[in-house]
Amino acid sequence: MTYKILAIDTATENCSVALLVGDKTYSRSELAPRDHTKKVLPM
């Protein structure tokens, strides 16, 4: 069984997204003060 975990962090000026699929991890992070709504979805 392959499991998937999605983590989204927008609590600080840094905006980050991570996805764990089985044994592989994909992540994106960007310093984006007050621009999280524009950055999270494309990540």
Automatic annotation (TrEMBL):
InterPro entries, alphabetized: ATPase_NBD (IPR043129)
Taxonomy, superkingdom: Bacteria
Name under which the protein is recorded: TsaB protein
Organism encoding this protein: Vibrio maritimus
